[in-house]
Design goal:
This protein is of the alpha+beta class. It has helices spanning 4-10, 19-27, 83-88, 109-118, 120-142, 149-160, 177-184, 188-200, 216-220, and strands at residues 29-34, 39-41, 49-55, 57-63, 69-76, 80-81, 95-98, 102-108, 172-173, 204-207, 210-213. Helices cover 42% and strands 24% of the residues. The chain is globular. It binds a DNA duplex through residues 149, 176-178, 186-190, 192, 196, 206, 208-209.
Length: 224
Amino acid sequence: MIAPEKLLSTTHWARDLPADELERACKGLAERNIAQGAYLCHRGDRLDSWTGVLSGLLKLGSTSRSGKSVTFAGLPEGMWFGEGSLIKGEPRRYEVVALRDTRVAMMNRQTFNWLFDNSVAFNRFLVRQFNERLGQFIALVEHDRMLDAPGRLARNIAWLFNPVLNPLAGDNIEISQEEIGLLAGVSRQAANRGLRQLEEEGLIALEPGLVRLLDLDGLRLYGE
DNA sequence: GCATTAACACGTA
DNA sequence: TACGTGTTAATGC
């Protein structure tokens, strides 16, 4: 059980639910802490809940047998994930690790299925989220060759501010340059150089431990 | 040549 | 004192 006010403060889809459905959702949710560096799940795990970030920062990616790791997406406060594995009844195809101490809300399968079967608002959200993710991944494949550091940084930052997936994101996010480096797969020093380049181009503004969004489309379409 | 790691200096909470 | 940031030197591909 999680307090409705707490869910509403971070989670946009909850705001669209009628009162009875919101109550049902809250009853099926439990909170959990994930320490920095700890894994919420590994590839192949069967994780029987849908998960949202209440505070902190998660990284969704995978590691090959040879040890190379790839980031699919950063998951800041307000983002929800795992519906694909839940609906298909599949093991997770990715791993989720906390880049800093993080608090998540986890919805059990019965509650998720009930909302899936009964809530129009919930299904509207799921379709929007699937659609947006699909668009993001198409763009990722399209610009596969664009591998330079500023481009990867721009893409990752644009994702964190995605207004469809995370309408409550606002125009700034508390994230260190080291954490952005971890998301983009570059060193802290390279992240530092790349971020200052993006700042010079007027796309973002940098403050210690914080990135302010100035031009979302400029980031999204960077290098095109 | 390029990016990465290691190491240190600086400012701030 | 701890952390985020900026810089340089050494190292590996």
